[in-house]
Task: structure prediction
Amino acid sequence: MSTPAAPLAAAEVLQILRQRWQASYDLQLISRRGRLYLQVMWAYLEQQSFPLTAADYQAKLEELVGTLNGLGVAEQVRQWLTTTGEKPRLGKAMTLPLELPPGRASEFLL
Result:
């Protein structure tokens, strides 16, 4: 019997983003054709044109991480962020198709 993965923390996600790509990239959860995806966008907090303040970015990240933990995909996201060979590029988001535990998808995909 496997033990559940430790929940993600916003600070951990931020640390991974900064260590891997030297920037605090924007993250989004999107639903498309009945599937849920996590996207790492090309915009990042350190850009002058980034639309959020540091406090707003932190609040958005906290909410997103809470949702990912609630979906039961913390380890999936952690693994992907630390091992993907992709890099965020202007105009192209990095996309992780989330594999949701049975029963969880219906709560989010209405």
Notes: The first strand starts at residue 25 and ends at 32. The chain has one domain: 10-99.
